[in-house]
Design brief:
Helix content: over 70%
Number of helices: 4
Number of domains: 1
Oligomer: single chain
Structural class: mainly alpha
Number of strands: 0
Largest sheet: none
Strand content: under 5%
Order of helices and strands: HHHH
Distance between the termini: 27 Å
């Protein structure tokens, strides 16, 4: 992302995951089980990223409060989480739209 080597084509949303899962199913049950495990682990790692609106963002606020020794203003924290959530929803829409274009067009 920093060097400019990142693009939305590198990401898969729900439609891309469905398309990939369709292909994995043809390889058998154990491959599907491994695929499910990889998806679950990946989701857990992404959820721990220090981004607002994710669990990692919440942990970052706990760490900040621990270092600062006083709580963050709830209004400010709410605004930060709202903006983070809005940006994540925009990313999700873009990735899903990109998946649809790849799958159907």
């Amino acid at each position: 992302m920093i060097t400019g080597g990142f693009s939305l084509d590198m990401l898969n949303g729900p439609v891309g995951i469905y398309t990939s899962t369709e292909q994995v199913v043809s390889y058998g049950f154990l491959t599907l089980l491994n695929w499910t495990a990889v998806l679950s682990i990946n989701l857990g790692i992404v959820n721990l990223l220090p981004l607002p609106a994710l669990d990692g963002g919440r942990l970052l606020f706990f760490l900040y409060e621990l270092i600062r020794r006083k709580p963050v203003d709830p209004k400010k924290e709410g605004i930060i989480h709202f903006v983070g959530f809005a940006l994540l929803m925009i990313l999700m829409i873009l990735v899903t739209w990109n998946d649809i274009q790849r799958a159907f067009f």
